[in-house]
Structures are given as C-alpha cells and as structure tokens.
Amino acid sequence: MLQSFINLTKIPDLRKKIVFTLGLIAVFRIGAYIPTPGIDGVKLAQFFANIAKTQGGTLFGIMNLFSGGAIERLTIFALGIMPYISASIILQLLTTVIPALEKLSKEGEAGHKKLVQYTRYGTVVLALIQSFFIALWLEAPQRFGGLQIVQYPGWPFRVLTMITLTSGTAFIMWLGEQIQEKGIGNGISLIITAGIISRMPTAAYQLFSLVSPFQPEKAQLNIFTLVIMSVMLVGVIVAVVVITQGQRKIPIQYAKRVIGRRVYGGQSTYIPLRVNQAGVIPIIFAQSIILFPATIASLIPNSAIQNLASLLMRGNIIYNVVYSLLIIFFAYFYTAITFNPADVAENMKRYGGFVPGIRPGKATSEYLDFVMTRITLPGAVFLAIIAILPSIVSGSLEIPYLVASFFGGTGLLIIVGVMLDTIRVLESQLLMRHYDGFIGRGRVKGRR
User: Fold this and answer.
1) Nearest CA among 324, 325, 328, 348 for reference residue 336
2) What is the pLDDT of residues 41-92, one digit of tens each?
3) H-helix or E-strand containing 136?
4) CB atoms within 10 A of CB 169
5) Would the pTM count as exceeding 0.70?
6) pLDDT, tens digit, 9 for 90 and up, residues 354-374
7) Spatial distance between the Cα atoms of 448 and 441, rounded to a whole number of angstroms
8) Which domains does the chain have, with CATH numbers?
C-alpha cells in the first residue's frame, strides 16, 4: 500500500488532480474563518458555549459538524453544504412521487444534468430561507441572554446576511463540483469530511488535557482507560469498514439469444445489495427530529417545550431508545425509496436475465424485496449502535462529547465511508496507468 501511495506522486496527471483537490479543500478551510459582516463573534461564541457545552447538543451542532465549526463563528461558510444535502434528499424523495421527475431520472445523462440543475436551484432557495431566519434570530438579544450579537440590526443586515451566506453555500457547491470534475473523489463528500477532520485537533487537545501527563494530579483519565479507548476506536473503525463494504450478492444468469448469426448473452453476473444501503442519511434524519425540541427549547423559554427537551437530553435512556428507533425506521424508509425491486426485476426480464430458481417478473421482485428487507435490519441496528455510542462513551467516561464523537456517530461514518471511496478511486487510477505493475512483473510487449 505504501508503494501505491508513492506511485501517486510519479504520475503527473494524477499528481495534478491531487494537488488541485487539496488546494480547493484549503480554500474551503480558509473561508471557514472569514466572518460575516455585522456580527460580534466574541459574544456569539459565548452564546454557543452556553447552549451547547457538548458538541452536537442541538441542530446547531449538526450544522457545525458539517460546516467544520463555521456556524459557531458565523463565517461566510456558516451554512456549509447542508442546504445542498437537504435539496438533494428532497429532490430524491420527490422523484419517487412525481411522475415527471421519475421519468426525467430515467433519461440518462441529459436527465441527470437536469436533476442536478434542479438541485442547485433548490440549494439556493433553501440557503436564502435559512439565512433569512438566521438573520432574524441573530437580531433578537433576548434569545442570547441579553447579548447584542448584531451591531446594526435591520433590513440592510438581513439582506447582507442572506447574500453572504447564500453566496458562501453556492461557492462551496461549486468547489465540490470542481473537485468532482477535475480532482479526485466525490467533491461534496470530501468537503464534508474535511470539515469534520478539522475538529480533530481540538478533540486531541481536549483529550490531552484530560490525560494531563505533565500534571498527574489534574488527570481525569488514566492510561489504562486511554488504552481501552484506543482499542475500542480501532474496533469501531473495523466494524464500520465491514458494514460499509458488506453486501449480499444475488446471482444473475442471462439467457442466450441468437440474433442473425451471432449469439448474445449466456454470461453470469450478480446484483450487489448493500447491507447499509442508506448510508449515513438515517442518522441525519433522526438527529434532525430528536434534537429539534432541544433547539427550540434553547431559543423559546416555554415550560412545555423545556420539559419535552429534558426527556430527550443526550445520555437519557429515553433519548437512546427513541433515537435508535428513528434510525432503524429511516434506514428502511430511505432504502425503500432508493432501491426499487420492481424496476430491477423488470430490467432483468427485459434483457433476458433471471435469478436461478426464481421466476422472472413479480416473483423476482418479491425475492429481491425479501432479501433487502432482511439484510437492512443488521445494517440499521449497527447504525443505531454507532449513533448512540458517543453518548454512552461521553456519559460513562465523563469526557467532552467532541472527543467521544470520534468513537462513533455521523462523523466517523462519513470519514470512513469517504476515505474508502477515495482510496477506491485512487486505486482505479493506478490500475489504469500502472496496470503492468499490478498484474505482473516485466515490460508489456510493444511498450518502450
């Protein structure tokens, strides 16, 4: 593997793509520190420290996770890529219920480009709406414990904030598309991963402060506990890799067809059904719903909302149970939307394919639905365990949630998944350019 990474620097075209990708990621990180005009950043940071002493305690924590800490500083990239993710999910859901969009999704490259264009429009609309309500929220001192966050409130500030935050989101979206076209890997995913990884130094510093090796009397964690945490981290990463890569291969046989003097078909292949078909989407949906009362409670001093939020506080048994059930529900829900066994069975039947022992058509559709339903359960349960693991680690060891979040949760799933996809892309690039070095030794005949 080390030799493969060394080979990356030996290929000029691949080297340029990697440098281009890292350069755009650096631009994204620089933008995460440019403040939005008219904001008192010190008072805003003080507010976030008061309402969310543990990272990710409200919906702002989710936005802060995906923006790489930009939301708590309210920089020009404060909205991050969340509007784009929301627009993509909404459009994907609408594709299943609106016939025109479903027809468009089946029109190949032209239809795909049209859907991407709709996603961009939806991203801008969502960013404008979110930035407008953020501006209104910032202007109210009573929501910040009397702190005056905005120096000059009014419509000029609101319009400026909407333009600034929407432009920031559009620019991040453009960065992701440029990485996708001219760089390496999925641009949007790499930007999200870069934002999550940027929180690692802060988490490492907090962990170092807890261990406090130079001042043992102030240590809150002993070396034995740190070793156990390290072993658990490795085990969790291995488990995430296994579940992410896990799939059930459904064998497919294509019948032979004679057209003129040629014989077509007759080969065998398979359909890979992923154990975790929904990816990290169920956790995002579940977090948005279960943290909504806590977010509202931090903004509106209402006793009923406060009581509901107290029942759904992180670390509470009710929180863990409800959170897990929501994740399992959304795992099945999103899998049912993204995987249509009837369409798969119809396409197989059209080209003469069949599952050995299963009749083509409706029987094949029912069989695929049955298999997907069964393999989705362990994937959904695993997502639920990974999602509540940071809360358990944080509560049992009494460590900051930012440190515990790297032992599970959304961040770890995204990091591992994106790293696997990126390594897969790099490997394919190496195989394409250095195939003689992977297949066997010696020079390929006819090459100089």
Assistant:
1) 328
2) 777 777 666 654 444 455 555 566 656 666 667 788 888 888 888 888 888 8
3) helix 108-138
4) 27
5) yes
6) 888 888 888 999 999 999 999
7) 15
8) 14-198 (1.10.3370.10), 216-407 (1.10.3370.10)
